[in-house]
Amino acid sequence: MASLSLSLLSSTLIFGYGVSGNKLSFNSSSIGFGSIIKQRRIRLSALRASSVVFRGLDADDFRHPLDKQNTLILRAIPGLNEVGKALLGSMTEQIMLLENIGTSVLVSKHQLSELHQLMTEAAEILDIEAPDLYIRQSPVPNAYTLAISGKKPFVVVHTSLVELLTRKELQAVLAHELGHLKCDHGVWLTFANILMLGAYTVPGLGGFIAQSLEENLFRWFRAAELTCDRAALLVAQDPKVVISVLMKLAGGCPSMADQLNVDAFLEQARSYDIASSSPVGWYIRNAQTRQLSHPLPVLRAREIDEWSKSRDYTSLLRRATQMNDLPRSNIDLKLVEISNSLK
User: Fold this and answer.
1) Between the N and C ends of the chain, which has fewer C-beta atoms within 10 Å?
2) Is 287 among the domain residues?
3) Cα separation, 62 vs 308, whole angstroms
4) Is residue 340 part of a domain?
């Protein structure tokens, strides 16, 4: 979700949760195979029951028009992509990789497995390979994606974001990050995230990223965020889930999360449009947003609400496949074999 003003880095938010492992045992006092299999299926299918997947999904199927427009502007800057790849080379990649391995927890089937399931399911829905996912201890709610030199990208989520969101909301954030990868935002995404992280000390970057280029990058990033909010909706398949994430990023905290109202937040977004419609309001709005890496939360909420009602979104849903109609995974088949053998 590569983030907000609250940005994906400076203010991107995400969610998480604790995980407990199940241990198979033949001890008569331990839980039986049947119960374990049942619990496993409930956990794996809780989100899958009503989900659909998008086979053959192309990034342009959901890319926001402003993303297309600003991508063309960046591509018109001579040599930007080549220079970016040269600067974000093996050294930068190694710095970022060691930083995450050394200070975060790598999510996997054997480490925070439920969070791993959320990521793999979101990737399946968007028809993309799941990246590595790290959880980092931080009081600043945030999430971001780095993809350097064509290597396997990774997503980082802060623990405070995990505490703020529900699991469905957290999966929407993961889907947002996957949207960046699906749309091949690549080098420019990494540039923008490094800017938000304040990593000007990376050799060569400080002198290369001039103010005008920074403004162009952030203008593009704001547009790219709108695209990735759409990716979040394709996975959540409920606009209120995505809007709730944006609302919590704007002013949520765990102790009051159950009192927040999505409809009231959308009404707030409409009031912002009215207040900024005058010439003075238009000027203030542009001055307020020009230096932001992410669109304002209320504007993102309005955008995703409108797209959820659009013909394009409805058309995508029509061509999707029910997830529970897909072939069983290997692990599901294995559990069925074990269950049958005990009957």
Assistant:
1) C
2) yes
3) 11
4) no
The residue segments making up the domain with residue 319 are 33-333
**Residue 20 resides in a domain:** no
| Alpha helices per DSSP H over 127-261 | 159-164, 167-182, 186-197, 205-208, 211-236, 239-251
Residue with tokens 């063309």: 72
SS3 for 27?
coil
pLDDT digits (tens, 9 = 90+) for 170-216: 999 999 999 999 998 876 776 666 665 554 444 554 555 556 667 77
Q: For 242-287, how does the pLDDT look when each residue is reduced to its tens digit (9 = 90+)? A: 999 999 999 999 899 889 999 999 999 999 989 888 888 888 888 7
Dihedral over Cα of 225, 306, 258, 252: its sign: positive
**125-154 tens-digit pLDDT:** 999 999 999 999 999 898 988 876 656 789
Total domains present in the chain: 1
DSSP SS3 for 253: coil
Q: Among all residues, which ones are annotated catalytic?
A: 177
